């Protein structure tokens, strides 16, 4: 059966971008049936930039609550945190020997996150895509649902699989398919239409958190950066207006309609009319999830038990794949 893998970092609280670009699709793939779904809280990835230990713990549990509140069923999908399945890191080491420095240096996430001071970035941040390839390939996953920003890392995952298969004259690792779908595969910052919305953005006003209450959501949307013109009749009219386009994409994704339909619905409106409507819609869709997250967070022991069970199931799949990898490369004892 086709196998789905995807991960989210506990590097902060979940955002509307994570929900629309990733989690919503995770739930659909789980519910569609026919896929074996594995969803991971990638805590070791989060550590590639500094995480306060207590915050990392809390964020991991909250992320798990976010998955479940959004509709992931831990009985159906395998739900766990990365650090508890050591095969990820073990395979990542093999991939560190496969991936080339040049490949890693070209990754836009590396360039964005390391910034101008790459000398001072962690070695882990540079190697991030090799660990990500291992996350996926240690399960022989065939489909990876992600936001637009992760496309390049998935190409690199394919390059690593291809090079490994070529170097060791095998067809052991599958060539994975990237799944990006919908109107909101790249939700932008509410403060800057050229930057994606991120949970690690220092500005809280730049994003809608899945735990924001109705007032916070309404305020952030009201204050979202826009231009003075009314909304046009068609999407063409949004060219060069990234902030307006972003709000239309969010509106479309939340209402489950295409961006074309969305702009037709609100053509001619001023932002003073459109924004309150969008805020109300966002609250209506997100409030039940955030309420459920808060309820689940009251029982951290239950969350920990779910993660522990998930890790056990994940290991059952990963262990033989790592062992076979070790055998292929010639490690004695495998
Ligand atoms: P960080 O800022 O720490 O990198 P993040 O918000 O980018 O956090 P990740 O954990 O890196 O979140 O990514 C988890 C998933 O959410 C990935 O599939 C990613 O593509 C998706 N995603 C992240 N941000 C957005 C966004 N703004 N729009 C759509 N999808 C997104
Ligand atoms: Mg990210």
Describe the fold and architecture.
The structure is a single chain. The chain is mostly helical and 334 residues long. The protein has two domains: 3-185 and 299-329, Rossmann fold; 211-295, Tyrosyl-Transfer RNA Synthetase. It has helices at residues 16-32, 43-46, 53-70, 87-98, 101-105, 108-114, 123-137, 151-167, 214-223, 242-255, 259-266, 271-297, 300-329; strands at residues 3-8, 36-41, 78-81, 143-145, 177-179. The protein has a three-stranded parallel β-sheet with strand order 1-2-3. A two-stranded parallel ribbon has the order 4-5. Helix 3 crosses helix 12 (271-297) and helix 10 (242-255) crosses helix 11 (259-266). GO terms for molecular function: ATP binding; tryptophan-tRNA ligase activity. ATP binds at residues 9-11, 17-18, 147-149, 187, 196-200. This is Tryptophan--tRNA ligase.
């Amino acid at each position: 059966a086709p196998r789905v893998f995807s991960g989210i970092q506990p590097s902060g609280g979940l955002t509307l971008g994570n929900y629309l670009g990733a989690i919503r699709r995770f739930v659909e793939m789980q519910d569609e049936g026919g896929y074996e779904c594995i969803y991971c809280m990638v805590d070791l990835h989060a550590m590639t930039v500094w995480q306060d230990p207590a915050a990392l713990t809390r964020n991991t549990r909250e992320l798990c609550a976010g998955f479940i509140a959004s509709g992931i069923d831990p009985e159906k999908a395998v739900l766990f945190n990365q650090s508890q399945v050591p095969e990820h890191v073990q395979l990542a080491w093999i991939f560190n020997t496969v991936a080339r420095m040049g490949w890693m240096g070209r990754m836009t996430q590396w360039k964005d996150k390391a910034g101008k001071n790459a000398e001072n970035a962690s070695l882990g941040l540079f190697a991030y895509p090799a660990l990500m390839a291992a996350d996926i390939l240690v399960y022989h996953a065939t489909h990876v649902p992600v936001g637009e920003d992760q496309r390049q890392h998935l190409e690199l995952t394919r390059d690593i699989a291809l090079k490994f298969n070529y170097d060791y004259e095998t067809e052991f690792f599958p060539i994975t398919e990237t799944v990006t779908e919908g109107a909101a595969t790249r939700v932008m910052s509410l403060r800057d239409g050229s930057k994606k919305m991120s949970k690690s953005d220092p500005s809280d006003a730049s994003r809608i958190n899945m735990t924001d209450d109705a007032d916070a959501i309404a305020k952030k949307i009201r204050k979202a950066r826009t231009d003075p013109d009314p909304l046009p009749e068609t999407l063409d009219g949004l060219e060069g207006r990234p902030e307006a386009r972003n709000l239309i994409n969010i509106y479309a994704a939340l209402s489950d309609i295409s961006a074309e339909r969305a702009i037709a619905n609100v053509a001619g409106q001023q932002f003073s009319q459109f924004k309150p409507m969008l805020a109300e819609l966002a609250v209506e869709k997100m409030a039940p999830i955030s309420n459920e997250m808060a309820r689940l967070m009251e029982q951290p022991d239950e969350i920990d038990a779910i993660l522990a069970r998930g890790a056990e199931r994940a290991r059952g799949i990963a262990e033989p794949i790592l062992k076979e990898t070790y055998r292929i490369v010639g490690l004695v004892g495998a």
